[in-house]
Amino acid sequence: AREALAQAQKMETVGQLTGGVAHDFNNLLMAVLGSLELLRKRLPDDPKATRLLDNAVQGAQRGAALTQRMLAFARRQELKPEVVDLPDLVRGMTDLLQRSIGPSVRIETCFPLGLPRVLVDAHQCELALLNLTVNARDAMPEGGTITIAGREASSEDVGSLPEGRYVCLSVTDTGTGMDAETLARAQEPFFTTKGVGKGTGLGLPMVQGLAAQSRGRLLLRSGLGEGTTAEMWLPMAEASSHCEEALSLPVQPQAS
Length: 256
Ligand code: ADP
Known about the structure:
Bound molecules: adenosine-5'-diphosphate
Shape: globular
Distance between the termini: 41 Å
Strand order of the largest sheet: 2-4-5-7-6
Radius of gyration: 21 Å
Largest sheet: 5 strands, mixed
Number of strands: 7
Strand content: 15-25%
Order of helices and strands: HHEHHEEHEEHHEEH
Protein name: histidine kinase
Number of helices: 8
């Protein structure tokens, strides 16, 4: 519990820092972009100069896009937990997921009939799934299969969870996997192995934050060459100690 608190405090600090820095950077970059556009108007008709200017504009735009993502991360969104049927939620977004990752990787889903519903913010849960799916795709440059699955689980199956019944929502890939050091650091804010401009290192912290705020947990299982499974453990709506709260919450509308 002390570790979880330390992690939460770290996230809070990182969030505040990120928010401040991103905000200032965003303003600076907007000024840079504005000046560059003014410069363009005064520039002689020199193709080389125009190309250099285009490079500068592109760089500043990429920087602005990154600061936008950092701002979105820092803005601690209020979660709106509701009773969610995970198979429905996943079914409703498989097209979107498939489009986001391209055709080289196939998505399969595997949910048992009658899987209990969970208490989670549906929209944030979709974003988390998108993050996990994109990570899975990135780990499979040669293509492969992503399996999104759900199963009933109990806190006894894994340490450091409040006692109770859970649903484990998992995203499994057949990709490169992680070595022990990467696995140990993967959930740290800003930790990325994807290189500048590609990774932000904010995907897994977002998923971890959502799971923790939902009174669940993010668990990663991985080995080099063995692929990766990311598990979001979410408390069952029906069996949680917040049962009465849960009953008064709106049920997520059925995705057609
Ligand atoms: P980002 O995707 O921007 O790098 P994340 O926080 O989502 O940030 O992930 C952090 C790091 O964890 C990744 O850079 C990668 O090294 C590792 N990682 C995450 N998911 C996977 C996966 N499915 N397979 C292999 N490595 C992964």
